Amino acid sequence: MTDLIARSPAFGLTPVAYGATTLTEGPWQQLTALMPFAGQTARICTALQDAYGLNFPAPGRLTRAGHTTCVWTGRGQAFLVGSEPVQDLARYAAVTDQSDAWVTLDLTGEQAAEVLARLVPLDLSPRAFGADHAARTLLGHAAIQLHRLENGFRIRGFRSMARTIVHETADAMAAVAARAALD
Amino acid sequence: MRLTCPLCGARDRREFTYQGDAIMLTRPSNDDPTAFSDWLHLRDNPAGRTRDLWYHEAGCCAWLVVERDTVTHAVHSVALVEGEDAD
Ligand SMILES: [Zn+2]
Fold this sequence. Notes:
The complex is a heterodimer. Chain A has helices at 41-52, 112-117, 162-182, and strands at residues 16-18, 21-25, 31-36, 62-65, 68-74, 77-81, 93-97, 102-108, 134-139, 142-149, 152-158. Chain A is an alpha+beta fold. Chain A folds into two domains: 16-26 and 100-182, Gyrase A, domain 2; 31-97. Chain B has one domain: 2-Layer Sandwich (Folate-binding fold), CATH 3.30.2270. Chain B is 10% helix and 38% strand. Chain B is built from one helix and six strands; from the N terminus they run βββαβββ. Chain B starts with a strand and ends in a 7-residue tail after the last strand. Chain A binds chain B through residues 35-39, 41, 59-60, 74-77, 121-122, 135-138, 143, and chain B through 7-9, 11-12, 14-15, 57-62, 80, 84-87.
């Protein structure tokens, strides 16, 4: 019998550190895509409130309660992160397990926003992109989901793009650290 | 160039894919083959206002109708083709 070795999506790629900025693989969490059926968003909110104490997020936002997060990921779609989906959700939404399809990368440190400014076409200043904001956007050419952490940003990309995302982010980290060293 | 997506807000052009004239949303009956063929194949190329379909591929994945001016580059409106809810 072949002995298979389980590898995380960013296995062997992280951590990466330049100056005060660090890129690490985020914790493995259960990810479930929720796509409410037409007109069922109010019912999915009730079901999410009953099970986790949070609402289905508005576009561009996330909701949090305890260790569970619900992150908006597109028109009529959000990811339930960190908890098992309760049975009731499938009555009002298409429910799909996504846990192994994504790579989660945490970019932390004081200059995390400056690193992303070289890769992401969004205003990531705290006044434009706060703790409850969630975006789907680009990192270089790769499609990502993005939200804030206490000391940086959480990037979620397609697992198949893990090497590209780490490579491009590491290049930007090196450039920002090099510039800081000149000052 | 920026487009203000009704769901995502003002976003850079590179997040969007251009499809073409929004006339594609109003498909005629195919009783009249000439009219149907014209709808399918013939397009104006105006200097001025256009109404086009754009796809917010690297954002919310909504189809959008964008009214803009090819002479002044002004964007007059951006609207969702369908509702905020998917189905
Ligand atoms: Zn959008």
